[in-house]
Amino acid sequence: MKKSTVDNWDSIEKNWREKLDSHEEVVPGAIWEQMEKKLDEKNKKAYPFIIHRRQWSWAAVLLISFGLTWWQLSNTDTPVVGEKVSSKLTSKIQVPRNELATTGNLEDNIQIVTVENPKHATAISPGEIHSAVSKEIPEELKSSPFIEENKPNSNPIILADNRSTEKENPALLAKEESVELLIDIQPSQANNQEKVNSYVPEPSKKRNSLFARVVKQLKQAIDGEPVDWQTLKQGDPKLENSIHQVANTYIKTEQVVQRTFQF
Amino acid sequence: MSKTLLPFKSEQELIQACQKQDRRAQQIVYQINAGKMMAVCKRYLGVGPDAEDALMEGFMKVFSKIDNFQGQGSFEGWIRKIMVNESLMKIRKTANRYDQDIDETYDVAHPEDALMHLGVEEIQNLILELPPGYRTIFNLYAIEGYSHVEIGDMLQISEGTSKSQLSRARQILQSKLKELQA
């Protein structure tokens, strides 16, 4: 067996090691791009929930805040302006304020009273209107000349067709300013074949439309698109009047979710 | 290629961000180390796609195993070790180059002084001219600083084989230098 000669090899190799230690080669830029793709694929496979957790958290925020607000509102007995005041059929009567102010007599206003759904309207005495108004109409409307000037009497009000009324009374065409009253009107017996409830906005439909909006927002959140929670309130008087509650609940829930997921 | 740690304040912070799979942190780690690690891979695998593959797969391993880095030793040293292992795996896949069980050592002449004054490129080229088996053991022993026992474990060869292959590598280097000087 021959002996190896390593006298100065150690020092040479040390010299080479020091030189090569800081040596660098040029790296093609495409390598990082390929790596990024691989890392993305790997993360998608390994952590599908983590990748989308931000979007899911937005969806959770929306869902929780909406649920809490809905629950809060459903447990509130405070009457809301514009809400249906009884289970009976509610029709809208529009009376120009200037007409009321000048005539001050309900009988004079017979021609200008219009009903949205004349089929289901029947004759109502002014006394019934007065009692309905005094019970259900907000304070600011109670001060209207319409309320003050008209006392209950036996003269019935004839509810006319909207179009014919407009022809007869051109003053209505202007409609510069009108007082909107909600009055319960009993359905007439003769026209009772058609269901009365079909003319009342069904609560279930309202919920569905709101639900559809929530679903749309959730889809947007999951897709990573910006979410505008204010669109949820559109068309819903409860939410419109209590939007601050919605906002507060939303922000609180968002903070809780962010703390939980540690963004 | 920018080699700043920004926006991270320290290497520790950078590593922690990488452990959370932060893409910006991963890119910075790559930018800081890719050049050096490419040189390591090329020293084992030569110029070609194998070195680039080893670099990429090595960094993928760095990012997936970064939780295992406990802060003992330098981060660069840890990455280098992964790159060396990745290069060895590439060599193993292509052929078994350590099947020669040679216990015989070779007579290597006293090294020329010229070897001390070689530039980096010349050293790199000389090493790359070695046959793959000798080159691997010379790299592991002379450049990376592993012992023959460690090399034997890494390559599944005997300690004697590692020693003999190192002797042979030195002999070839010596003769190559003479060819250059001639």
Average residue pLDDT of chain A: 62
**SS-based structural class of chain A?**
mainly alpha
**Cα distance spanning the termini of chain A:** 68 Å
Give the biggest beta sheet of chain A. 2 strands, antiparallel
Count of spatially separate domains of chain A: 2
SSE pattern of chain B, N- to C-terminal = HHHHHHHH
Give the fraction of residues assigned to helices of chain B.
Answer: 55-70%
Provide the low-confidence segments of chain B as ranges: none
- The CATH architecture of the largest domain in chain B can be given as Orthogonal Bundle
Number of DSSP-assigned strands of chain B: 0
Work out the strand percent of chain B.
under 5%
Fourth-level CATH superfamily of the largest domain in chain B: RNA polymerase sigma factor, region 2, helix turn helix motif
What's the shape of chain B? Answer: elongated
Portion in strands of chain A? 5-15%
Describe the structure.
The complex is a heterodimer of chains A (263) and B (182). Chain A contains 13 helices and two strands; from the N terminus they run H-H-H-H-E-H-H-H-H-H-H-E-H-H-H. Chain A is mainly alpha-helical. Chain A has two domains: 52-81 and 201-261, no CATH class; 90-199, no CATH class. Chain A has a two-stranded antiparallel ribbon with strand order 1-2. In chain A, helix 4 (53-74) runs antiparallel to helix 11 and helix 4 (53-74) runs antiparallel to helix 13. With 182 residues, chain B is mainly α. Chain B has two domains: 11-94, Rna Polymerase Sigma Factor, Chain: A; 113-181, Arc Repressor Mutant, subunit A (Orthogonal Bundle). Helices cover 66% and strands 0% of the residues of chain B. Chain B contains eight helices and no strands. Chain B is elongated, with a radius of gyration of 18 Å. Chain B starts with 10 loop residues before the first helix and ends with a helix. The interface between A and B is large, with 33 and 43 residues.
